[in-house]
Amino acid sequence: MTSRFGVHLIQLLERRETKLTDREQRELARNMLREKKLDEAYVQWAQDVRGRAYVEFREPPQ
Fold it and tell me: Which residues of the chain form beta strands (DSSP E)?
């Protein structure tokens, strides 16, 4: 990895797995669903804005 401070080398030494509680799993699922819906809403909004946009190209005066 390179940053403004130089090159950084990172080595993964260990990986731990943890069990999520039912409450944490529900919260994670809610957050994922909320993020998916926000992404879909943004795509729809962007398509609507593009559909209503009026663009006119003009040649610059000579």
Answer: 2-3, 6-7
pTM as predicted: 0.53
Per-residue CA distances from 6 to 1, 2, 9, 47, 57 (Å): 9, 6, 10, 42, 46
Per-residue pLDDT tens over the stretch 21-30: 999 999 999 9
**What is d(CA 46, CA 29) in angstroms, rounded to the nearest whole number?**
26
Domain boundaries, given as residue ranges, for the chain: 21-51
